[in-house]
Amino acid sequence: MARDEIDRRKVLAAGLGLLAAVPPLAALEGKPAGKGKALDPDEGVTAPEDLMKEHGVLNRCLLIYEEGMRRLQAKQEVAPEVFLHTAELVRTFVEQYHEKNEENYIFPEFVKARKLVDLVETLKTQHVAGRKVTAEILRLSQPAQFRVAANRGQLVAACQSFIRMYRPHEAREDTVLFPALRTILDAKQVAALGDRMEEDEHKVLGEEGFEHSVAKVEAIEKQLGIYELGQFTPR
Question: What pLDDT score was predicted for residue 28?
Answer without folding.
Answer: 37
